[in-house]
Structure formats: structure tokens, C-alpha cells
Amino acid sequence: MSAFYTTVARFYDAENRDKTDDLAMYSRLAAQHPGDILDVGCGTGRVLIHLAQEGHFVHGIDNDRAMLARLESKLVQHPLLREKITYVCADVLRHQTERRFRLLLLTYNALMHFREPAQQISLLQKLRGWLDQDGLLVIDLPNAGPAFAADDTESLTLERTFLDEETGHLIMLQSVSLLDRATQVLHIDWIYDEIDGDGAVKRHLAPHQLRYYFLPELRLLLDRCGFSIENVYGDAEGGAYLADSERMIVYAAGT
Hints:
Elements: H1 2-15, H2 23-32, E1 37-40, H3 46-53, E2 58-62, H4 65-77, E3 85-89, E4 101-106, H5 117-130, E5 131-142, H6 144-149, E6 157-163, E7 170-180, E8 185-195, E9 201-211, H7 215-224, E10 227-233, E11 247-254
Parallel strand pairs: 1-2, 1-4, 2-3, 4-5
Antiparallel strand pairs: 5-11, 6-7, 7-8, 8-9, 10-11
Helix pairs in contact: 1-4
């Protein structure tokens, strides 16, 4: 995971500037579960900083130094947030802490980085040990059904264009992907074409692999690791989870 994010870190915030649809959900859950919050795979701090700005105490963990350097630069610009935010650069599967959290967040696609069953079980068991009494685990994933029903094309797809915040260069983000339905792993090459003021193009290639989850297997994983599912939603606004829902957002409590 780290090599991919080291490549894309400089583009991450500009690329995801419009990704705000889930922030109100995390604000609501933080108000309902007052106490310390853990953001697993916190990256550059998209959710972390939002919650800290609302007065919550938030701890982040991420294993990519380039992403955390972006977070640190934001804290330099907003020093008062340091009173609310702590973070550590570490592999969550090896990290040890005595802290307990009222909210454990696996935000936008974070669980997809854990592709092997042993990793999944290790992660969820560790998180169960970090969950405070009456706490909640939140997992935000894409709904696997529509992806598995779609036809494979392996064609080059233009995902979006945006401006690099530091250079002002135009970035054309494209992708080529292949879904292995036997292993439930999406193999995707992200292609960042950076166009400078003279029209010269510099290409940044970032291959990535992400694993899809279906609800029955996630339910079994959570049950094995000491969680029970409380609710499943199809979007961040609390809409019903249906076969064609875009997202699969799971709230789980400790058993």
C-alpha cells in the first residue's frame, strides 16, 4: 500500500477535494459517541482534520510517510489543531497501544487494502481490542455487486482532471483496470499525466490492488473477531443498502 500512496501523495488532496459527502456522517457519529476517535489509514487528514475542527480528539495511523508529511504541513498552518490531533506512522497490524477509542474508522475504501484473510482477521481482532465500551466500528466500502455485474473492458478510462495545488499544472487522471472475480481483487493502474505551462507531459504510473467484500463474508469476519453488525447503509446519508447501492457502509459494535 505504501508505495502507491508515496507516488500519489502530492496529488491526493487536489484529486479528492470534492470528496465531502461522508463528513456529515462522521460528525454525527462523533457527537453520538463522545470520546477519542481512531482513523485507520488517515492519510493526509481529510476526515481527521474535519473532526478535529469540530472539537473532537482524533488519533490517526498510516504507514506512508509522504501522506503524513502532507498532514503535518496542514498542522503547521493550523497549529491549534495539534491540541486535538495525534498521529503515528506505523503498520496498524504491528502497532501497539493502550488507548481505547469510542469510534474506530475505516473510512473510504480503507479495508480494501487488506487483501489476505490473515490480514483481515489480524486487523479486526486488533481493532476489537482497541474499542472502548459502547464504542462503534465504521467501515465504508464500495458495494461489490455492481462492480461484479459490469462488463470488463480493460480500456483506458479518463477518470477526472484537476489542477495540482502546488504547481498549477493540469493533471489528467486515467485508469486501466481488471477485476479478478475469483480472488475479488481489483488490479488497477492509475495514470497521472501532468501537463505543464508549455504543454509538456510527465506521466506518473501508480499500480494498485484493492479487494472487494460482500456483506455475508464481512459479517462472518466481524463475528469471528468479536463484532456484530448493527446497521448497513447504502450511502453516507443513511439510505437503505440495496443490490445497486453505490456504497456499503457498516456500523459494528463489540460483542
